Amino acid sequence: MADDFTAVLPANAWNWAAVWRRNYLAWRKVALASILGSLADPIISLFALGTGLGLMVGRVEGTSYIAFLAAGMVATSAMVASTFETIYAAFSRMHDRRIWEAILYTQLTLGDIVLGELAWAATKAFLAGTAIAAVAAALGYAAWPSVLYVLPVICLTGFAFASLAMIVTSLSPSYDYFVFYQTLVITPMMFLSGAVFPLTQLPGGLQRVARFLPLAHSIDLIRPAMLDRPAAGIGLHIGALCIYAVLPFFLSMALFRRRLMR
Amino acid sequence: MSKVAIEFAGVKKSFGNKLVVNGVSFTVASGECFGLLGPNGAGKSTLARMVLGMTRPDAGKVTVLGVPMPARGRLARKGIGVVPQFDNLDLEFTVRENLLVFGCYFGMSTRAIEAIIPSLLEFARLESKAHARVADLSGGMKRRLTLARALINDPQLLVMDEPTTGLDPHARHLIWERLRFLLARGKTIILTTHFMEEAERLCDRLCILDHGCNIAEGSPYALIEEHIGCPVIEIFGGNPQELSSLIRPYVQRVEVSGETVFCYAPDPEQVRAQLRGRSGLRFLQRPPNLEDVFLRLTGLELEK
């Protein structure tokens, strides 16, 4: 039994790249539409909320509201991009289009496929988050060059949320269940993690909850980098995001094995 | 190269409390075409998935290309090509891109894949479709592309799960011709089918499955000789029960399936003589085939 489980783990350190490349080649055909589509929403939110609400709330934590919100939007867009890639696009490749099944005929293992999908979702998160960070930096809402530190954090955020969403994908019988994950996990996480208002506005109990949320850890790394402030607890935040990236990865592999290789 | 390509020994598998494979054993030699024959739900596809290491047996041993499955499935799959029951081509890509992307899964370099794509397209008679989108191909073309895709790693063993189900006769004959070409080049093929004609034409040996059990095994000719061994007359158009009791004394065996009476008659003339003068009956006298074997062994009817 244990021997069987090692057979589904990633076979080596590079096999996953073939799956990543497959997704990249498919995406390249629709790249422009995909980029415009995934950027429009967060950028509109950033400017609408940033300027509209910004007028009312004034300065937040010693900076303009739009600069405060920009950091939250970078992390949130990374979260949303990798989550959606995993629950909708990867689910479609696994379930409807049987692309995973075809890949399992080859020397790739289930672990290679899941890792390739995570890397691809993290790539899309990286594109989405980086684009917002670039817009914010160009308009003077993020400090140069400390904004560069956000790039690896966006990537790690993408991995963590892809990995979490992979569990949902592995358990869901159909697309209909994904809306629960969106409305009950992803959307509340945005409000509980300090993306649009400071955590200090939350009641004490919820503040303690926020300490465990991956998005809160991501924002605690991204906001100081964009505002060029000293960050506290860098190791803790990176460690938490790594745990969210790694543990669900192994859990989802076990769940996919049960689902696809009965 | 080992002489034995696939070995199943006492393999069992249940899904929930449904026993789908009940102690199946067989051996497939290298270079042979071996058929798994049976009605829907007999356990054919489950056995095919076990060959690929995609389903774990509950009991028994599966050895493919010399390695135990599914524990060392990755090693075995390097030498296996697969044609699944349902097409799972990548619809976002063209014919050529499908082959390129699939070759990458085997760790092949782009240059190595590009070098063999022309011969694969020629094999699949898809030379003119290289840049067509897969979504625009006919059913037969998709099957041929799936077959070409299965050959990209130059496998020793091909696993085919109902390779011609859903194809028109012309497309089916083209696939059969291509499979005979592969057998002539020394490939081993294991295929599942519920088409008797397909099994008779292609398979060197086959086993007949029913309710997860291997109920007969041998070459198509030997199975037909052993279990039938005489001409068959099919009679339609009368009351099957009445006809069968009338001719029973004159034949080796008689069976009713639907509205057809199957007479296994060493002396067909005697049967005809008994029924002479009855109007509205139609006769078909033919050599025995695998379907007769199957009816004999299971009493079930298969699709023609």
UniProtKB/TrEMBL annotation, chain A:
The chain positions of domain ABC transmembrane type-2 read 33-259
Q: Which residues cross the membrane?
A: 30-53, 65-91, 125-144, 150-171, 178-199, 234-256
Q: What is its main location?
A: membrane
Q: Which UniProt keywords apply?
A: Cell inner membrane, Cell membrane, Membrane, Nodulation, Transmembrane, Transmembrane helix, Transport
| Example of a GO cellular component annotation carried by this entry | ATP-binding cassette (ABC) transporter complex
Q: Which GO terms describe its biological process?
A: oligosaccharide transport
Where, subcellularly, is it found?
Answer: Cell inner membrane
Recorded topology in the membrane: Multi-pass membrane protein
Q: Does the keyword Transport apply?
A: yes
Q: Which GO terms describe its molecular function?
A: ABC-type transporter activity
PROSITE patterns for the chain: ABC_TM2
Q: What does the subunit section of this Swiss-Prot or TrEMBL entry state?
A: The complex is composed of two ATP-binding proteins (NodI) and two transmembrane proteins (NodJ).
Q: What family, per the record?
A: Belongs to the ABC-2 integral membrane protein family. Lipooligosaccharide exporter (TC 3.A.1.102) subfamily.
- Functional summary from the UniProt entry: Part of the ABC transporter complex NodIJ involved in the export of the nodulation factors (Nod factors), the bacterial signal molecules that induce symbiosis and subsequent nodulation induction. Nod factors are LCO (lipo-chitin oligosaccharide), a modified beta-1,4-linked N-acetylglucosamine oligosaccharide. This subunit encodes the transporter.
Q: What is this protein called?
A: Nodulation protein J
User: What species was this sequence derived from?
Assistant: Mesorhizobium neociceri
Q: Lineage in the entry?
A: Bacteria, Pseudomonadati, Pseudomonadota, Alphaproteobacteria, Hyphomicrobiales
TrEMBL record, chain B:
Compartments where located: Cell membrane
**SUPFAM superfamilies reported in the protein's UniProt record:** P-loop containing nucleoside triphosphate hydrolases
What organism does the record attribute this protein to?
Mesorhizobium neociceri
Gene3D superfamilies named in the record: P-loop containing nucleotide triphosphate hydrolases
Superkingdom of this protein's organism: Bacteria
Q: Which UniProt keywords apply?
A: ATP-binding, Cell inner membrane, Cell membrane, Membrane, Nodulation, Nucleotide-binding, Translocase, Transport
GO terms (molecular function) for this protein are: ATP binding; ATP hydrolysis activity; transmembrane transporter activity
Report TM segments. Answer: none
Q: Give the InterPro entries listed for this entry.
A: AAA+_ATPase (IPR003593), ABC_transporter-like_ATP-bd (IPR003439), ABC_transporter-like_CS (IPR017871), ABC_transporter_ATP-binding (IPR050763), ABC_transptNodI (IPR005978), P-loop_NTPase (IPR027417)
Positions of the ABC transporter domain:
6-236
Q: Which family does the record claim for this protein?
A: Belongs to the ABC transporter superfamily.
Write down any Gene Ontology CC term. Answer: plasma membrane
Q: What is this protein called?
A: Nodulation factor ABC transporter ATP-binding protein NodI
